[in-house]
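Title: Comparing notes on inverse folding

I've been comparing how different people in this forum approach sequence design from structure. To keep things fair, I'm posting one structure and asking everyone to reply with a full sequence. Here's the target:
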């Protein structure tokens, strides 16, 4: 009684696993053999399917083979000992052709396959066979049935066979799990097989935090760093960016000094944070730019606008993405023009050590509406979160 309860509990624990496996791609072929041998019938349709469809599918890069079930059988004619040996030899014949890992292989034998015979005869014969199975000498009793000769000619050849079932899943990120598979054998004994199978992921792996840089800005000696936080609600994320080119040469009056901080919100059209996205942003900045001794510009400003981009995940490295994007918006700046060759008076340079009130108010104003940034980000997903699939 204790063993039966253990087996029932194992079967119940396996039900969710089998529910998942049922959705996988499964290929089946019934390969017939010549009578009293383990030689395959050369032009058997089942063997043609096995060669032309099943074996090539094993090496398809899109799918992953995780289980093969082999069931050897024989027809109910002939001595039972011979039938038992034939069923095993036929199954072993197919196993020798597969060359797959033993932990993916499940082999069973049905020396005299009455179960399949029942599925192939007409209703009247089926009732007779069911009644006969309650007796002792079923083989001799079947020979006395009215349709026995037709049964031998049309049904028995397909019972001298090996049933091959191949189970595949698509090559997607997957987890492994240990399961217990219970096989109930015809003689009412139980065989428990312990194996590790690959199952479909029941979760999505989505990013939490990504670090980025704008390659186009970097190429124009404008170093920048970006971060994006993903919120999991309505496909939204928060982005932050900081540009910090701070180059200068006092000897030639050359200054390229910019500090620009940007914050924004994105909404992706896909819930895996790839593909098209739309956003809004705001930024604040200060700058000191001078390329010769005669003309320099120094000021501060802010901006608002909208952005659009497209995120493409790398197929080879799933943590990497590329994001071409554009920003369009309004910029406002107050600034002064200065002569860099004049003696430094401490009014405008950001290294001024005095009090802020001693700065001179900017004299000029600049307003602009149009494209404010074009870039190609390279993004690295540093932290991921596991999210259950719905």
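Reply #1:
Here's my take.
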């Amino acid at each position: 009684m204790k063993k039966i309860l253990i087996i029932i509990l194992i079967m119940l624990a396996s039900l969710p696993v089998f529910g998942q496996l049922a959705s996988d791609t499964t290929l089946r072929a019934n390969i017939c053999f010549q009578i009293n041998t383990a030689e395959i019938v050369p032009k058997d349709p089942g063997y043609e399917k096995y060669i032309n469809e099943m074996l090539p599918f094993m090496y398809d890069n899109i799918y992953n083979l995780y289980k093969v079930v082999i069931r050897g059988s024989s027809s109910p004619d002939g001595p039972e000992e011979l039938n038992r040996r034939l069923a095993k030899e036929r199954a072993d014949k197919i196993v020798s052709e597969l060359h797959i890992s033993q932990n993916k292989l499940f082999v069973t034998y049905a020396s005299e396959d009455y179960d399949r015979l029942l599925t192939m005869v007409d209703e009247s014969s089926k009732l007779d066979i069911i009644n006969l199975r309650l007796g002792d000498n079923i083989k001799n009793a079947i020979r006395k049935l009215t349709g026995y000769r037709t049964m031998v000619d049309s049904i028995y050849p397909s019972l001298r066979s090996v049933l091959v079932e191949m189970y595949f899943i698509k090559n997607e990120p997957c987890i492994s799990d240990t399961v217990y598979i219970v096989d109930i054998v015809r003689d009412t004994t139980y065989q428990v097989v312990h194996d590790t199978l690959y199952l479909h992921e029941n979760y999505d792996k989505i990013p939490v935090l990504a670090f980025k840089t704008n390659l186009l800005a970097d190429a124009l000696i404008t170093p920048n760093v970006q971060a994006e936080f993903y919120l999991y609600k309505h496909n939204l994320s928060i982005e932050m960016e900081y540009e910090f080119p701070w180059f200068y040469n006092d000897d030639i009056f050359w200054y390229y000094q910019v500090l620009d901080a940007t914050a924004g919100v994105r909404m992706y059209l896909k819930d895996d944070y790839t593909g098209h996205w739309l956003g809004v942003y705001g930024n604040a900045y200060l700058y000191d730019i001078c390329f010769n001794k005669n003309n320099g510009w120094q000021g501060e400003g802010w901006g608002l606008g909208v952005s659009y981009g497209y995120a493409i995940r790398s197929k080879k490295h799933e943590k990497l993405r590329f994001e071409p994007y554009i920003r369009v918006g309004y910029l406002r700046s107050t600034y002064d023009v200065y002569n860099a060759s004049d003696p430094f008076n401490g009014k405008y340079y950001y290294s001024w050590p005095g009090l802020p009130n001693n700065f001179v108010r900017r004299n000029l104003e600049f307003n602009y509406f149009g494209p404010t940034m074009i870039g190609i980000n390279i993004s690295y997903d540093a932290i991921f979160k596991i999210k259950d699939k719905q």
